[in-house]
Amino acid sequence: MAVATFFPSQTSYKNRHYLSRDIQFRSPLRLSTPRSILSTIRASSALVLESDSGIQQDQNLKIDVFSCPVCFEPLLRKGPPGFNLPAIYRSGFKCRRCNKSYTSKNIFLDLTVTSGMKEYVEVKPGGTELFRSPLVSYLYERGWRQNFNQSGFPGLDEEFKMAMEYFKSVEGGLLVDASCGSGLFSRKFAKSGSFAGVIALDFSENMLLQCYDFIKKDATLLNSNLALVRADISRLPFSSGSVDAVHAGAALHCWPSPSNAIAEITRIMRSGGVFVGTTFLRYTSSTLWYLRFLREQRGFQPYGYLTEEEIEELCKSCGLINYSSKVQRSFIMFSAQKP
After folding, report:
1. Contact 232, 263 (CB under 8 A)
2. What fold characterizes domain 119-338?
3. Which InterPro entries does the record associate with it (predicted)?
4. Which helix (H) or strand (E) holds 280?
């Protein structure tokens, strides 16, 4: 087994690329030049991929930042270079280990385990399935998200500003906007120019299509380092230690298993990576006693609302450190870092 070791010229996030510094590839590799930006390396004279039988593979293949959701092997990519929507749309992706192929024929790149299946249909809990609805996806930025202000959410611009404060130490890196919805924050992160790449990731096909509808109206976004990816938050399609920042806006309460999701987020982040999330709290110290009693009946709640203490414990139990939070009525923004 060959080992490809990459050495960045500097240790700051602004000069890091996206493959971890020590990645062991299953197929024998011969590497003669440094890695290129966005973890895509041309398999030409710089990189030769060979199968176990020693047969050389297609010279147009590249090792991509995305990984197979089945075995977490970095995907091989065939197509034009670039980390923008047009380039990814015209590319094909394949796992060299399980031989599973992935495409972006629906504008977004589907990196779920069920990608390409025709018979099997997986149904998630109601809190997740609701956002797969075309109507909810359409309304999300047309009144739905604005109603969050009544619960203490400070508004998109202020939330974005608060998140960017937490992300200062990882500017210049790769950011995943998990459960991005219609991409309202993904677009802000991409337009900020603070990150080398932004991945708008959601399980809802219709949310991603709605996100694309907004993106295609802005030529600067269409050709920016922004990708649309469908993925399961509990099985993220990235190699361990390959992501610098993860954002999850108003999402934690919708996840089927917050513990599995945060464990996955921890897995994919580099050392020093930052996770920032917002959600609704189940109750706070100022919640009236009878409302607190009702909200404790969690089996009757449509979403998995947590307390501030539960969120902090979840992050710490997954190995994250430097936890901090800001609370305003039922709104909480929290942040934690991978050691």
Report:
1. no
2. Rossmann fold (3.40.50)
3. Methyltransf_11, SAM-dependent_MTases_sf
4. strand 269-280
